Amino acid sequence: TSSRPKSSLSRVGSVLSPSVEESHSPIPEDVSNEIEQQNKACLSRIIMAGMRMYGLQQQRKKSFSGASVWDTQSVASTTTGGQDEYKAVYHQTFKAVAFAFRKCWRDTVLGQERLRDTVDVFLEKFCGDQRGGNGGGLEGELEREFGFGM
Description:
- The chain is mainly alpha-helical.
- It has helices at about 30-55, 70-100, 110-125, 135-145.
- Helix 1 crosses helix 2 (about 70-100) and helix 1 crosses helix 3.
- The protein starts with about 30 loop residues before the first helix and ends with a helix.
- Residues about 15-20 and about 70-80 have low confidence and may be disordered.
């Protein structure tokens, strides 16, 4: 038994249909692309839900009808940093989880609970525990361990 508490992402609703839950049996090669796409879609939804829990929101493009060129540029410059951060956290989390499951990524339909738990571990490292816990994330760990932050 693990002393690790249950993932906070377990509250996120089901992404896959109930008939497509975790399967441990190998799948024939001819369906591996379909399985990989299914795993990618599930992982993407779980990451975005988790990022919302950590306070990271994807910026929607707004229509600036009637706004001057200067107004549009100032709004764009203030939201670009947040959008870059969102994309960086999303892509690095996706890559990290896909790497963690690299041995079974193409031939096993991964269960949501396994993906949620893994995503939660990486988001906690990348974002810190911004949900009110003791966190600090990777930056906090570097500060405590080596005396410097990022």
